Amino acid sequence: MVILIIKITFIVSSAEVFECEFKNICRFIVIIIIFIIIVTLISAVRLTPPYAFLIFFYATLFSRLGSGPLWNEWVGKNRDYCMANWWTNLLYVNNYMNVQEMVIVIVKSAG
Description:
Strand content: under 5%
Oligomer: single chain
């Protein structure tokens, strides 16, 4: 009888310890997820304004800065892609949508 009580007590206390450790692990996972979300938002807030300016510059002014036999063929086509797909870059989905019409080719190799 005493052994049975000891076994039941051990099982109950083990379950309580497991529950406590499970709660701690869950808290840790939630903290990690919140940290990742915060870091991602900070990065987006920090990187989006200069990136938006670069896309604006590339879609409007860059084609007027140079000349040459292949300038308008290469830059003009990319300008048209940029005017059509600028929103994919600002949402950071440009590597998944309209990959054939990449806005800034240099960004493709940087990512």
